Amino acid sequence: MKYYIEKKTSYSFDEAIQKVTEELKKEGFGVLTEINIHEKLKEKMDVDFRKYRILGACNPPAAYKALQAEDKIGTMLPCNVIVQQLSESEVEVAAVNPIASMMAVENTSLGAIANDITERLERVIAAV
């Protein structure tokens, strides 16, 4: 099982960010954090890295259920979604696979939550 769900697109980088953000909203997610890796690596290390953004997406009802079931699950929240420029004409959008992540947590009550979030993220990625 892969630890991520991905799709390559012909959207521009900025269009992909906008599209994935819209699709996340449709599935009940908000973007809590946004990390611009390209800018951070340039700022901290003077490295020219490709356009690469990490979006920290959260579905509050699912996060609440997960936190009630497992108090340390916050170490795996929010769900990270990346957008990266692969070439001039290709951008990839990828999200963590919650089912794969939850395999490391020995709490069977998280299974249904992980399945639900995985299905939502799969729909988001497919719609981009």
From TrEMBL:
Superkingdom per UniProt: Bacteria
InterPro entries linked: DUF302, TT1751-like_sf, UCP021774
All copies of domain DUF302, residue ranges: 35-98
CDD domains: DUF302
SUPFAM superfamilies: TT1751-like
Protein's UniProt name: Uncharacterized protein (DUF302 family)
Organism from which the protein derives: Sunxiuqinia elliptica
